[in-house]
Design brief:
Blueprint lengths: L1 H29 L5 H24 L5 H12 L2 H13 L3 H29 L1
Helix pairs in contact: 1-2, 1-3, 2-3, 2-4, 4-5
């Protein structure tokens, strides 16, 4: 358990650092008007999650999943895990559940961040 947790922590540090550098680079490239860095990490993280799911399963590398998938990609973007979950539901033929998951996650997350902003602003 400690080894797995260490892999997740190390991968998370790497992923979060990569996300920071990507956001910084995008900000310098196009300025602060559009969240290009976030968009890039979400799309790239989702793509890499798809690649890793297949490669690790086929090569017997699932022992690296905590480091690479949960750690690096989880630190880089949690959107990759969300994308995998949604696609898994879709591929299982649970189309309505996949759509509900995507819509619910996006709408409720936006509502939650709005609620958090309102609460924090009202307390300060």
């Amino acid at each position: 358990m400690f080894l797995t947790l260490s892999q997740v922590a190390l991968g998370g540090a790497v992923g979060a650092s990569l996300r920071y550098l990507t956001n910084l680079g995008a900000m310098r490239l196009i300025g602060p008007g559009f969240p290009l860095g976030t968009m890039v990490v979400n799309i790239l993280g989702s793509f890499l999650m798809g690649v890793l799911v297949v490669v690790l399963a086929r090569k017997g590398g699932n022992a690296l999943a905590p480091l690479l998938m949960t750690g690096v990609l989880g630190g880089f973007t949690t959107f990759s895990a969300f994308s995998l979950d949604a696609l898994t539901l879709w591929e299982r033929g649970q189309t309505a559940l996949a759509v509900a998951y995507v819509a619910g996650s996006v709408i409720l997350s936006l509502a939650a961040i709005g609620g958090g902003l309102l609460l924090a602003r009202s307390l300060t």
